[in-house]
Amino acid sequence: MWRIPIIGVCLQSELCSFSKLCQLYLSSLLVAILVSPVAAQTPHRTGILSTLTNDRPLLIISAVFTLFNIGLAFILSKKSVSFLQLTLIGLGSMTAFLHLGIGLRGRGLLLLNGLGYVGLIYALLLPISFLFARRIWIYWLLLAYTAVTFIGYFATHSVSMFSWMAILTKVVELGLMGLLLVRIWQSRRTPSQAVSPAVNID
């Protein structure tokens, strides 16, 4: 008799906690983005910033933020998001956070590149009607952005300058471009539907 109200209260409490966690996450991410240009221009990066932007810690941090973005996409879509879209969000997030971290080593161009990725990924992730109606254009823009980044790296780096982190980032970018092409093809085949904003329309 009392079981249903109790379950409802528990679910409401969990959703409230998740909402607060999302607010904290997005606020922290915004603060990090705002201070990153200053941090990147610091002449001597020592201590915690230097440690966190080393290859292995950066990979772990990027993976954690990526998993949170995937979880956020799953919740915002009311659990109706496709595996393809979750993978797309995951690869895009991983690319964004890796570029941000490498940019914090003092590489301003990569920092700006990472900020651009963050903006495009959250344009796909957040349930905003204006962006949702123009999702196909965001796919094309992200595809072009990733292609320029991918080609630009090989145009400005010799083979001897490749590191395992660089190779990993390029593999992630290749996967992202492939998924974007599939998603664009699917969107062109699927007739427009009047649906509420969500991460996916499948």
Q: What key phrases describe this protein's structure?
A:
mainly alpha, disordered N terminus, 202 residues, 0% strand, globular, disordered C terminus
Please outline the helices and strands:
Elements: H1 3-40, H2 48-52, H3 55-76, H4 83-103, H5 108-125, H6 129-132, H7 135-156, H8 164-189
Helix pairs in contact: 3-4, 4-5, 4-8, 5-7, 7-8
Short description:
The chain has 202 residues and is mostly helical.
Description:
With 202 residues, this protein is an all-alpha fold. It has one domain (3-189). The chain contains eight helices and no strands. Helix 4 packs antiparallel against helix 5 (108-125). The model is unreliable at 1-12 and 193-202 (pLDDT under 50).
Which radius of gyration do the C-alpha atoms yield?
A: 19 Å
Number of helices: 8
Structural class: mainly alpha
Average predicted local confidence, pLDDT: 77
Order of helices and strands: HHHHHHHH
- Largest sheet properties: none
Q: Give unreliable regions as ranges.
A: 1-12, 193-202
Number of domains: 1
**Number of extended strands:** 0
